[in-house]
């Protein structure tokens, strides 16, 4: 018998069915990433596993015990299942170290001194020993999440559920949390991770579940899911999360928002700094200099261009498509659009030693294609 | 002295101004402090009433005692009288007359004569509202009516009543005592609801009930071998007590009207004129009666009358005890009730939640006085429940609703993630609530609860409505005895202030204790 068995799991809310029919088995020591579009029940599945949500039908067996049975001692089962939340949920009225000691002393009957020493050891493991006597609200998001991981480790769980652990973090703090999680995977913890961090899913996980429309659409090792997906939907999703889209508007253009969105994308994809800067420079050059002047001249307003940035190969190259149909419809000749390209290329060659050039084979003259890298 | 009069004159000239009206309230209190120095023990001086005929009354304000609704009798004689105002005690009404808030008040002649004896700035209106029979009231259909009537009729025919009348309306204070209840009381004990401010008919003096009607009642009770248990209160309460059956006998210069006969029975004890009292025109002769010894003596005398004489400070002390008991009991019980409501709501049973919702909605939107009166006269009606207990129940219900709402909102405001994190660790719902939710919610609701608790303390001042002798009512009693408002009111105001400060300080201490962000950064039971 497998460690975790999920059979025909279904969860209904009035008017929405996030989980239709989920079947899966998970062995001890496996690290599973659950990916998929938002609203497809990834978090719901995780929350059903420790019964924060009650499934409508189906069975969940953990270590042979049916979590949906009304006679199951839920608190006792939950002690074996750690959980790390997107919003950290540290107990605000306790010091960091008390947060970690709370479960072991109250639930496992551990001696306070022993629990304290253990908590300090765990804090050391996540690199936060000096924050033991801080309150949670004095920590950064990344630090909070590492404390939350230490808190769940203190209960010696047999499996840890991670519910989008880095989604609420600033881009700069994602890696500190991921690195702690990476260590846990190496130590052999059984982990289920709902995540958008594709690089983490690819590098660390033993298997990836792609969820879509309330079912596990495709499951398999990361190489299969990311490089050789068997289903069209999986391919579409994997491609989409590796691309970035933005609509350039005129005259109201929110440059900081665009820059933030692009940085988040790069950090998720673990794109190198050099390439990221080059992409940012190209987009900035087009958005701030070239297109606004053209739009002003022809009196366009609203969306004037749409950017799509792909990362086709392991983050070494980027492909930027710029859809300028609305400007062309306003009477701008495609040649005028091209004109800017050379200046951009020159600047990049000089400043970043990367290449940006028009890729051949684009049939539509209103779409500019840059290859950066 | 003269400053006070100047002020009064000023107020008379500018009575329409709201500011001077409120100033008049203060001045009325000050004026009353100095009134005793002007008291002259004769009523045959040459003072003349300000108003002398029914037509003078048109457009004027007339005061009536709540529980003595003679509005019609006034309107019959003067159809365009300005406004009728109801007061809860004779002393309030008299203060209002002094302070120009009313221009006339309705009183019976015995009380009016006594008042004129004490104050030279009031006079009796020449016309009367007619002669009426007055007496002792009984619940409708009570067998006591007949027993007592026989005796009171005999007392009137054999001349005893006249002798008593002379004794109680005379000026010899030393004679004004009532017989001890030294008889066996084999027929039982009767509860007597007694008006405390109707000197000389029924009044509270030297810590016991005195007056013409009291002695009459005692003579009759001795013959019938009843023990009497007097409960002092205001006139409006006497009428409610008889109608709801809380008392067996009502006493307090009660006028016998056809309307009242429909709901109560009476034994007649005396005839009395219903008269109006008005201000007297300024009288130089009497003003000069004020001694030049200054304010200090009059303040000292006033202080003596308010607190020292007959150990009157005991009223304040007992009143403070009652206020403290009601506040503390209903505060603690109310908080417990509110907390219980929160626990039940968290269980989420729909019916229970709906019931609690109704209770909290109802109590939070009803005036506490109405709740108090309803509980006392309707729900506990004729049951032998002491007023203090009813007050505690009423305030517990009211505070429970407020506290419950405040606590629930605070509990709801705690991030649901805290709940989930605790459950996911393996804590039960109960452990989660007490270990994680409550400490965080308490930090939010305790400051609100504290201010509501102070509010509660002040709100208890209305328990006098059901004749409970709290701090405010103690001041009322002293006021009705001394007919002076300044010291009693000032004193209880100060006591309430100090009481509220103490409560706020105690709550502040608790708030500081539970504020986790202020606690020292150490871990209990651990060597760091």
Write a structural description.
Chain A is α/β, with parallel strands linked by helices and about 375 residues long. Helix content of chain A is about 40%, strand content about 25%. Chain A has 13 helices and 15 strands. Chain A has a six-stranded mixed sheet, with helices on both faces. In chain A, helix 6 (about 170-185) links the parallel strand 7 and strand 8 (about 190-195). In chain A, helix 3 packs across helix 4 (about 110-125). The mean pLDDT of chain A is about 85. Chain B has about 525 residues and is of the alpha/beta class. Among the domains of chain B are: about 130-270, Periplasmic binding protein-like II (D-Maltodextrin-Binding Protein, domain 2); about 315-480, MetI-like fold, CATH 1.10.3720. An eight-stranded mixed sheet of chain B has the order 2-1-3-11-4-10-5-9, sandwiched between helices. In chain B, strands 6-7-8 form a three-stranded antiparallel sheet. In chain B, helix 15 (about 370-380) crosses helix 16 (about 385-415). The chains are: A alpha/beta (about 375), B alpha/beta (about 525). Chains A and B meet through helix 2, strand 6, helix 3, helix 4 and helix 5 of A and helix 17 and helix 18 of B.
């Amino acid at each position: 018998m497998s460690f975790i068995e999920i059979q025909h799991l279904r969860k209904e809310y009035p008017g929405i069915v996030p989980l239709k029919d989920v079947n899966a088995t998970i062995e001890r020591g496996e690290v599973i990433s659950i990916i998929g579009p938002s609203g497809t029940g990834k978090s719901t599945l995780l929350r059903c596993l420790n019964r924060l949500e009650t499934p409508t039908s189906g069975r969940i067996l953990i270590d042979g015990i049916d979590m949906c049975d009304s006679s199951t001692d839920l608190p006792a089962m939950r002690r074996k299942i750690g959980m790390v939340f997107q919003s950290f949920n540290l107990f605000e009225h306790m010091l960091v170290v008390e947060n970690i000691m709370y479960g072991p002393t109250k639930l496992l009957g551990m001696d306070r001194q022993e629990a304290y020493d253990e908590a300090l050891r765990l804090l050391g493991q996540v690199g936060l020993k000096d924050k033991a006597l801080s309150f949670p609200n004095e920590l950064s998001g990344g630090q909070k999440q590492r404390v939350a991981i230490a808190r769940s480790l203190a209960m010696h769980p047999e499996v840890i559920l991670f519910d989008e652990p880095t989604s609420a973090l600033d881009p700069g703090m994602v890696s500190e949390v991921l690195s702690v999680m990476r260590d846990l995977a190496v130590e052999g913890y059984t982990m289920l991770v709902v995540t958008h961090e594709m690089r983490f899913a690819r590098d660390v996980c033993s298997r990836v579940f792609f969820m879509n429309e309330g079912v596990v659409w495709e499951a398999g090792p990361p190489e299969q899911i990311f490089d050789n997906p068997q289903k069209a939907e999986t391919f579409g999703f994997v491609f989409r999360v590796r691309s970035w889209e933005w609509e350039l508007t005129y005259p109201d253009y929110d440059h900081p928002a665009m820059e933030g969105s692009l940085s988040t994308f790069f950090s998720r994809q673990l794109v190198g700094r050099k390439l990221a800067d080059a992409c940012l420079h190209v987009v900035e050059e087009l958005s701030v200099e070239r297109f606004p002047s053209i739009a002003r001249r022809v009196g366009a307003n609203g969306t004037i261009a749409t950017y799509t940035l792909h990362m086709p190969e392991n983050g070494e190259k980027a492909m930027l498509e710029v859809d300028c149909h609305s400007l062309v419809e306003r009477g701008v000749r495609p040649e005028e659009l091209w004109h800017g390209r050379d200046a951009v290329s020159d600047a990049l060659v000089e400043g970043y030693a990367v290449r940006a050039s028009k890729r051949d084979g684009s049939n539509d003259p209103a779409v500019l294609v840059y290859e950066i890298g | 002295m003269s400053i006070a009069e100047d002020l009064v004159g000023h107020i008379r000239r500018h009575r329409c101004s709201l500011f001077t009206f409120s100033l008049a309230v203060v001045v009325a209190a000050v004026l009353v402090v100095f009134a005793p120095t002007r008291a002259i023990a004769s009523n045959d001086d040459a003072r003349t009433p300000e108003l002398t005929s029914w037509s003078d009354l048109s457009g004027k304000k007339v005061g009536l005692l709540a529980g003595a609704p003679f509005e019609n009798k006034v309107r019959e004689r003067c159809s365009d009288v300005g406004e009728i105002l109801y007061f809860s005690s004779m002393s309030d009404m008299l203060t209002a007359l002094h302070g120009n808030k009313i221009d006339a008040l309705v009183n019976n002649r015995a009380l009016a004569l006594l008042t004129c004896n004490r104050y030279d700035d009031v006079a009796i209106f020449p016309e009367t509202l007619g002669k009426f029979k007055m007496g002792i009231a009984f619940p409708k259909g009570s067998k006591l009516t007949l027993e007592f009537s026989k005796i009171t009729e005999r007392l009137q025919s054999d001349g005893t009543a006249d002798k008593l009348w002379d004794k109680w309306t005379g000026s010899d204070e030393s004679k004004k005592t009532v017989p001890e209840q030294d008889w066996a009381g084999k027929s039982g004990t009767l509860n007597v609801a007694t008006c405390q401010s109707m000197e000389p008919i029924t009044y509270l003096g030297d810590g016991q009930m005195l007056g013409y009607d009291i002695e009459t009642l005692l003579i009759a009770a001795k013959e019938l071998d009843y023990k009497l248990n007097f409960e002092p209160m205001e006139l409006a309460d006497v009428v409610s007590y008889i109608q709801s059956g809380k008392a067996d006998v009502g006493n307090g210069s009660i006028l016998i009207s056809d309307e009242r006969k429909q709901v109560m029975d009476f034994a007649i004890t005396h005839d009395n004129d219903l008269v109006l009292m008005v201000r007297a025109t300024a009288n130089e002769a009497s003003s000069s009666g004020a001694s030049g010894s200054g304010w200090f003596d009059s303040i000292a005398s006033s202080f003596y009358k308010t607190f020292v004489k007959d150990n009157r400070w005991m009223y304040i002390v007992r009143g403070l005890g009652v206020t403290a008991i009601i506040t503390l009991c209903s505060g603690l019980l109310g908080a417990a009730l509110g907390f219980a409501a929160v626990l039940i709501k968290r269980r989420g049973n729909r019916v229970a939640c709906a019931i609690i919702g109704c209770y909290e909605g109802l109590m939070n939107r009803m005036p506490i006085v109405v709740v108090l009166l309803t509980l006392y006269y309707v729900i506990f009606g004729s049951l032998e429940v002491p007023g203090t207990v009813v007050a505690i129940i009423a305030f517990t219900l009211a505070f429970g609703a407020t506290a419950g709402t405040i606590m629930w909102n605070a509990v709801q405001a705690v991030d649901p993630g805290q709940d989930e994190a605790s459950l996911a660790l393996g804590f039960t719902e109960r452990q989660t609530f007490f270990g994680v939710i409550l400490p965080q919610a308490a930090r939010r609701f305790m400051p609100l609860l504290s201010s509501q608790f102070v509010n509660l303390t002040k709100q208890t001042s209305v328990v006098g409505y059901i004749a409970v002798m709290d701090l405010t009512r103690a001041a009322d009693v002293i006021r009705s005895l001394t007919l002076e408002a300044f010291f009693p009111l000032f004193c209880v105001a100060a006591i309430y202030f100090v009481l509220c400060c103490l409560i706020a300080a105690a709550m502040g201490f608790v708030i500081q204790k539970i504020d986790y962000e202020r606690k020292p950064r150490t871990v209990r039971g651990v060597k760091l």
